[in-house]
Amino acid sequence: MKKTYISVALLLCMSISMVGCDSSQPVTSPVKEEVKPIASSIESNSPLKEDILKTEDVNLVISLLDNYSPSVLDDSVLEAKGDTYKWIWFNTLQIWTDDLIRLTHAKGKLEGKAKDAIIARLNTYFVPEESEEIFNTYFRKDSQGNYESIPTERFGKGTSSIHADLKVLIEKKGTKVIVRVTGTEYDYFDPQNKQKNKVDVEFDLIKKEKHYYITNIEHH
C-alpha cells in the first residue's frame, strides 16, 4: 500500500509541476486565459491505470487537493462587490471538482468504499443529491461492488472558459438563491477568424445555517 501512496503522490506532483500549479492561482480577471486544472497532465500510460484506487488513495488525493479548494460558500462571497470576485470563487470550485474527478479516474477502477470519501468531500459544496449525480456521471458500479470510470466530458468547463462580458446574476427567493453566470468565450482555433461563443450556466443554492450548497446545475 505504501508504494501506491507514493505513486499517487508522484502522479499528482508531476501533474502540478507540468502545469505550473495553475489551480492555486485563480484568475483575477475574466479576460485572461483559461485556468488549466492541475490534473491535466495525467498520461494514459500511468502506472496506476490498471490497478484499483483504494479508499486510502482517494483520501490522499483529497488531502493533496485541499490547498486548491475554495472556502465554503457563504454570504461573504455572494455579497461581494463586483462580478469578478464571485466568478473567481465558482471558477475555483469548478477547477477543483474537475481535478478531483480526473485524479480519482486515473486507474480506471475505484474501490466501492472509496465512493463515500468522494461524496463526503463533494458535500462540502453541493447538496447530497447533486454530489451523487456528479459521482454517477463519472463512475458506474460493477458486479463486484466496485466502480468503473465512465469516459465522458470534463466537469463543468463552461464557467472557466469566459473571456469577456462576464455577468454574475444572483436572485434570492427565501432560503433558495438562483445564480446565473454568463459571458463570452473566444475560440482561438483559427487566429484569422476568432469565434465568439455564449456561456450561460445557471444553478440553485440552498442555504443551511450559514453556508450555501449547489444544486440543479444547468448549461443553457
Automatic annotation (TrEMBL):
Name the source's superkingdom.
Bacteria
Q: Does the keyword Signal apply?
A: yes
Record's keyword terms, sorted: Signal
Q: Which residues, if any, are the signal sequence?
A: 1-19
Q: What is this protein called?
A: IseA DL-endopeptidase inhibitor
* Organism of this sequence: Paenibacillus tianmuensis
Tell me the organism's taxonomic lineage: Bacteria, Bacillati, Bacillota, Bacilli, Bacillales
